[in-house]
Amino acid sequence: QVQLVESGGGLVQAGGSLRLSCAASRRTFATNAMGWFRQAPGKEREFVAAINYNGDSTDYADSVKGRFTISRDNAKNTVYLQMNSLKPEDTAVYYCASDFDYVRIKRPGYWGQGTQVTVSS
Hints:
- Helix content is 0%, strand content 49%.
- The protein is built from no helices and eleven strands.
- The protein starts with a strand and ends with a strand.
- The model has no long low-confidence stretch (mean pLDDT 95).
């Protein structure tokens, strides 16, 4: 079982930055692909970014390319999402996710509880 705990959400003005963190409980974190998803009110959950087990492969939704950066520190069992140039439309609950297979990361097997990000205009 993989437990994921997100942190770093909050309220920020448009154009600002936030960094989300996701701490994983399991020692096999270093072999898992990790991802970030988000869900805005009244909308379906959507993919944001993913990173493979060693960090040499990443993927981003078109809506966040060039603004968001996913990274990981396997020594700390933590994955990050650096969010710059935030827009009001980035407002959502952000979820960390994990799967054993990078190919399946857009339909991951494990989810965190989510952290709220609110961007004011």
